[in-house]
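tool_call: predict_structure(chain=1)
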Amino acid sequence: MSRYAYATLVTNADYAKGALALIRSLRLSGTGADIIVLHTGGVEASHLAPLSALGACLLPADLLPTSEAFDERHVRARLHAQAPFTKGRKPAFHTPLDNFVKLRLWERTEYDRIVFIDADAIVLRNVDRLFAYPEFSAAPNVYERLSDFHRLNSGVFVATPSQETFAAMLDRLDRPDAFWQRTDQTFLQAYFPDWHGLPVFFNMLQYVWFNLPELWDWPSISILHYQYEKPWEEDHPKTELLRPLIALWHAFHSGEGLPDISALPNPLSPR
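tool_result:
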């Protein structure tokens, strides 16, 4: 497994907290692959140390060399004004421009294949078979209606590192007036228009719990992704709706009281 790696991105203390639960969940899955953490300059060493203690390889990553005009179009205030999030609330620590750092995974040519997982996700069972999927594989961005199967979610994807691909991405990313409404997610779908669709269970978005409960099946879910509000936020707007999922994340974060996943209630069951 030395030529394969799971990767995540940590851009601040909050996502370091999320990455701790993710890395612990990967370790518990029994994977033999490397676990790498791309981290930007805004993360203090004290927040990264627990990740290293779990055996993750910490890799400093600079923001991409984009133009000043590109950066201005994608800062939080301007992006959220032009393309507001109407389905859920992005926390205050959400920094859209940082998302493009994910593209630096294509520079990591010491690996044949990398599976990226957002730091606000946890792995519920071994997913090493993802390394056999082609580039570019991602699950659909389905959490409200089934008609969204044509859109990808970049919280989980399979990449084949290549300096040539990385250079081509940079060339396309920062063209005059380019505006990527959902940052890396919109860009990756444009760059890989024939992306390979993974089953939703490889990137089960938390809003499925209350919007599409008929899709929820614990024995099938491999990766649970806490899009929008984060489980470590205190009393966020969806706390009551998502309380069982929040409790599950805290169990992985602490490493204590891990439940039997197969015994957890489905959203359609009495609670």
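agent: The domain at 4-263 is CATH 3.90.550.10 (Spore Coat Polysaccharide Biosynthesis Protein SpsA; Chain A). Proceeding to next step.
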